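pipeline/complex-builder :: batch 7 item 3
reading input block
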Amino acid sequence: MELFRLEHKKLWRKNSTRICVLLCVFYCVVFGSFLVFQWITYGSTKENYSGNNFDGYENIRNCQAYVRKYGVLTDESLQEWVRDCKRLFAQLDEERKTQGAENQETVHKVENSDLHTVNAWLRTLYPDLERADMLGVSVMSNYVETEKLTGIYERREKAVDTFFEINNQTGAERDYLLRINEKVKTPFSWGWTEGWSNLLGSAISELGFSLAIFFAVVLSALFAGEWHDNTSALLLTTKNGWKKLATAKILTGVAFTLELFAMVAAGMIVLQLVYFGTEGWDMPIQMIKMIAIAPMNMLQAEIYEYAFALLGALGYAGVVMLFSALCKNHVLALLLSLAVTYGPMAFHERVPMWLEKAFDLLPLVGSGADVFRTNTYHIFGHYIWSPYLIIWVPLLIGVLCLRPAVKGWARRMRG
Amino acid sequence: MELSVDRLTKQYGKKIAVDCVSTVLKPGVYGLLGENGAGKTTLMRMLCAILEATAGEVFLDGKEICALGADYRDLLGYLPQDFGYYPNYTAKEFLLYMAALKGIPREEAGRRTDELLEVVSLDEAASKKVKTFSGGMKQRVGIAQALLNQPKILILDEPTAGLDPKERVRFRNLISDYAAGRIVILSTHIVSDIEAIADEVLLMRKGKLVSQGTVPELTKEAEGKVWELAVSPKEAKVWQEKAAVANLRHEGEQVVLRILADDKPAEEAVPCEATLEDLYLYSMQGKK
């Protein structure tokens, strides 16, 4: 325990560790959360669309207030939203005609109406109502015939089925996915979705992508750094020797991963609570993507994505520690660690589907946003929905790396 | 306590670094002498069980040291030649870290660290980072870490490198005091250090142990082979090329050469008392 305490202290004493932690927290919490909430994504549009105002907090409140009145997603509430939307667009047209420019207040109202989300629903659920001649001219909600927006949940079931067909997911796989989909409860409660969409669709699901580089820099020197410091002879002649030290180093690597993750996650969650509050936590994730099959609400999806990132980070820590133990040069260990994650990420879209799925099982390569997808793995005759697998396999990979790391380091140390 | 080395050999490819060394070491201070590449460090690393021997074994009281594992390491203190440290650690933090590696309980480690920092005169620099230390100060930190667990077997590879004369005297006194009942093996190029503290000297050449004995015993081997000869500066240059000259000093117009030779090198040469350094140099000439 004492050795772990000192090893942990040693890691945190390094300038590279402190700089990495500082940069990571700044990038994920200050830049990736605070500035995004207050300015980059949620700030209201400036006049002439010349950037955003620094008013995210107030603007988010307006967004939430605008959608709150619809309550539950039904045919009637959807039609009401579309009517309101058309009114706003008509008002914009009128302002352009009479004043020569749009009124900024009306522009903000349109922006705050969850326009992109609802239009995505319309395109998914009512493709037959979409007009080819209006593509790129106007959003669907501005021209769709309101009274034809009926049977929303039946339409959703059909859209899910059509998606399976297009995706060539048939037979047992389709039945398996439909069984998951059956658990999705309707009607859906309706709140401001865009915030949750950004949060679950990119901010949290891509957290691992951002964290990987910081974990790699710090942990690649954990074992390999001893060669740089030329301390192997000293370590090998001590009573506890390399074996207990290796255990202490692994515990240190795990502790550091948990600590850095906790710092970043805590910062992001606090800012999320400050900016979004808890409103909309119980909305089903289908409000973000209508053909998602997971019977999850926003809070459950968020917990999943954080758990996915944490377990992925722990798995990645195991992989980095293995490279660190096997390489005498910590720069080489760093490069290998980065390659194992960023390499597959870079080629993800350009490889066959089976390889893409295999890549997704590597630590921090896959995405927590798979809860919105219908990917499956076919293993020993059974179909497994990808989120079940991609959350555990990276951790397993990391755990499996630990023993070879200890053994490899011992072999290296003994020359 | 007895450390026996039995036909210990280390081979790297075709090069034999340590060639069938056998000896028995009992409590006392052993000085390991030899030129660069003689195999001193390799021998020491094998004695520390951090380097696997190609052949031969090392026994502590009849038990093979690798089999003893942690029990052997618990008795061991080692200062490597290129002593590595953690640059961002203070001297005290480094020693506490090493104490934890040596399995010393936290409280005892704190006490022992303070004691040793005082012994190596680093108590005032205890809270300064090791990376800011001079070479001599770093070496003293290295000596302190080797002594942390009060080892029964202390192996020091070039411990006096980087120490100034005053520090060297302090170190020699420290080792002399410490050595009672313990086996201390130290290597150095500074023959006077070994002369001052070693009970026995082990002379190595090209991986082989060529001599072992007390300082008087070894110097006796060089007796009758050390000569002094006064010559002109011009002749001195010629002598330096044709004979093994251990030393030269200027006396007025003349240069007095200390020549190592089996036979009287010149009519005017006078025999003089041999020192360990003479033996060392004589041995390194390959004439022994």
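note: DSSP finds eleven helices and 14 strands in chain B.
queue -> next item
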